[in-house]
Write a structure and sequence with these properties.
single chain; 652 residues; alpha+beta; Alpha-Beta Plaits; four-stranded antiparallel beta sheet; 20 helices; 17 strands; 58% helix; transmembrane helix; V-ATPase_116kDa_su; transport; membrane; ion transport
């Protein structure tokens, strides 16, 4: 439970071994590669350059294709028969890097692309046919072939007229122009009327002039043959064929959804390949050699040295110098109990390399505080069940794994505190018993204390817990300062407050008074004044004195007062649960009570889960970490096999 010591690793190797060595380093998963810091002006480094080719860009493009295809198959996939939370496949590393998986995935990508292209083509043709059918529908009343054309003596005009024009007015206007004219009304659609006009060619111009007064627009049927009815029949026949082809295409896409696993494995495999390519771009290479620089945990250095001994390579591993500490990656070493607290550390900021691992120091406070604020047996059981389900069913990694572990630990704490306060969904059980049997003597679960009746005691306990955590943080700070050789800072900063607190306690019980004055407390106050101004000069001493008194007193005691939120959230959660139980009891029926109470408690649980986490996080990051935490570290990011869709198991 500490910050792992790191070694700076430098390797010179043969260019022919580079790819294989990177693959094996990825298998070890304990080396973080960094771009070398050697000056390019050094003559000894001439010929070494950082090389970048199109291999990485091509791999990323292929990865995008695989991901896009996977998303398409998920949309086309029928109902998942594996359940809502399917288990991740477990495969060996050999199976992950099997070339056959990539070939199968590439074939799937090609087939899916071809099927989607065909599907899009069918949909485009269907839309075109729909448009053609809509255009022909108004002409159904005309039993004349659409490809009828004008002859030497007869002019044939297909077109549309305004919907406001009456048949009699149109026919009368044409009759006044020429007797050699006939109008056939085809139909009407929207604000247009569809007509066929036949007239002698000599009267063509006069007929057109007469029709213009009614908004006539000529229509062309180029490419159409036969009547509108016969063409619509052909369109409907084609639409039925296309519908069948589309269903067949969708069915084949649904069948391709069975290749999702292969695509997922391929994506995981491509992720590892891309990581190696990105690492390779951090190397310096010449025509025959390469240079690698990075960091490795000291405890795993022997594994790396054993690997390097199998190659024609030269290497060195050195301890970082103090001025290099800001660049040294930070790896936290924790056990199963404290590892879930990485979720908190990740959300804040990593400690500096020469700092202290906060997880084991924070764990008892964070877990207990969370349980104290939630304080309900049912809520604790829900959290415990949720954490166990996530671990066993989903097998998460990274932040989600830490979340599952934190749910389990805080669930246990919540259940214990709920048992101490006698809370199970608030007062759900006594109220339910009263509804079932009004004369019952079961009025409450046994409790050591309750938020509603022992509010003041809980408030005092919360402040006492806050004082304990603040003092713990101060003690850690003292140890760190003494180790760094700045014991005077520890004396004037933390030591002063310890003497003041001891003086207050002695003054309360009447011990250590001289002439009626609390000597220990006065010594502490004098130390506070001197310690705050010891580095100031001239007028700065006055301002430092004012700042010391104001910031010291208000800062310290306001930090302690912040822990009153422990009582506030415990009380709020308990009251809200009882309010919903009361609303349910008003219904007068067991069913109504159970429904209202469970819905209300579900809401209360979700709000408390978020609220307790946020407030607990605030106490740790501000009140506790502020006492000793040295931040600024960069998380250790080694080259390793990191999968999203599958879990890697050991070779048989």
């Amino acid at each position: 439970m500490s910050i792992v010591k790191m070694k700076r690793l430098r390797i010179f190797g043969m260019a022919s071994d580079c790819e294989e060595l990177l693959r094996k380093l990825q298998h070890l998963g304990c080396v973080e590669l960094r771009a070398p810091t050697q000056p390019s002006s050094d003559p000894g480094w001439q010929g070494f350059t950082a090389k970048s080719d199109g291999e990485l860009a091509n791999a990323q493009l292929r990865m995008d294709e695989f991901r896009a295809t996977l998303e398409r198959l998920k949309r086309c996939s029928p109902t998942n028969k594996k359940g809502r939370f399917p288990s991740r496949p477990r495969i060996t590393e050999r199976e992950l890097f099997d070339r056959q998986i990539v070939l199968e995935a590439e074939e799937t990508v090609e087939r899916v692309a071809a099927l989607e292209k065909k599907r899009d083509s069918i949909c485009a043709e269907q839309n075109k046919l729909i448009g053609q059918r809509e255009a022909l529908t108004p002409w159904l009343g005309l039993d004349v072939p659409l490809d009828t054309v004008s002859t030497k003596h007869v002019l044939v005009l297909f077109g549309t007229l305004s919907g406001l024009a009456s048949h009699q007015a149109v026919e009368a206007a044409l009759a006044e122009t020429t007797e050699l004219c006939q109008v056939q009304w085809a139909g009407r659609a929207g604000e247009l009327q569809y007509v066929l006009v036949l007239c002698h060619r000599k009267a063509g111009d006069a007929a057109r002039d007469a029709l213009k007064n009614f908004g006539f627009t000529a229509t062309s049927f180029r490419g159409w043959k036969g009547t509108a009815r016969s063409n619509i029949d052909q369109i409907e026949d084609r639409q039925r064929i296309l519908s069948q082809e589309l269903e067949a295409c969708r069915a084949r896409l649904a069948q391709e959804a069975g290749h999702q696993t292969a695509l997922q494995i391929c994506i995981d495999r491509m992720t590892q390949d891309i990581q190696r390519m990105e690492a390779k771009e951090k190397l310096l290479s010449s025509t025959s050699t390469f240079f690698l620089e990075g960091w490795v945990p000291a405890e795993q250095l022997s594994d790396v040295e054993h690997l390097l001994s199998q190659y024609s390579a030269a290497w060195e591993a050195t301890d970082p110098e103090p001025d290099e500490y800001p660049q040294v990656p930070v790896k936290l070493k924790n056990n199963r109990l404290t590892r879930p607290l990485n979720m908190v550390t990740d959300m804040y900021v990593y400690p500096a390399y020469d700092g202290v691992d906060p997880n084991p120091l924070m764990a008892p406070f964070f877990i207990f505080f969370f349980g104290m604020m939630m304080a309900d047996m049912a809520y604790g059981l829900l959290m415990l069940a949720g954490g166990i389900f996530m671990r066993r069913k989903l097998r998460p990694s990274g932040t989600m794994e830490h979340m599952a572990g934190l749910l389990i630990l805080c669930g246990i704490s919540t259940f214990v505190m709920g048992a101490l306060t006698g809370s199970f969904l608030g007062d759900f059980l006594p109220r339910l018993a009263k509804l079932i049997r009004p004369d019952t003597t079961f009025t409450a679960l046994p409790a050591l204390f309750t938020p509603l009746t022992d509010t003041l005691a809980i408030l005092i306990g919360s402040l006492a817990l806050g004082l304990l955590q603040v003092l713990t943080g101060m003690a850690i700070s003292v140890v760190r300062k003494v180790q760094a050789g700045t014991w005077t800072d520890a004396l004037w900063d933390e030591g002063t407050w310890w003497i003041i607190l001891a003086g207050v306690a002695l003054a309360v019980v009447g011990i250590g008074n001289l002439g009626g004055y609390p000597i220990v407390l006065l010594i502490g106050l004098l130390m506070l004044l001197y310690g705050g101004t010891r580095n100031a000069k001239g007028f700065g001493k006055l301002t430092a004195l004012i700042g010391t008194v104001y910031n010291g007193a208000t800062g310290f005691f306001s930090d302690i007062l912040s822990y009153a939120r422990l009582m506030a959230l415990m009380l709020a959660g308990s009251v809200i649960a009882q309010v919903f139980n009361t609303l349910g009891e008003v219904s007068g029926s067991v069913a109504g009570f159970v429904i209202i109470s469970l819905v209300g408690n579900a809401l209360n649980f979700m709000l408390n889960l978020l609220g307790c986490y946020v407030h607990d996080l605030r106490l740790q990051c501000l009140e506790f970490f502020g006492r000793f935490y040295k931040e600024g570290g960069k998380p250790f990011r080694p080259l390793l096999i990191n999968t999203k869709y599958v879990d890697i198991k050991e070779e048989d």
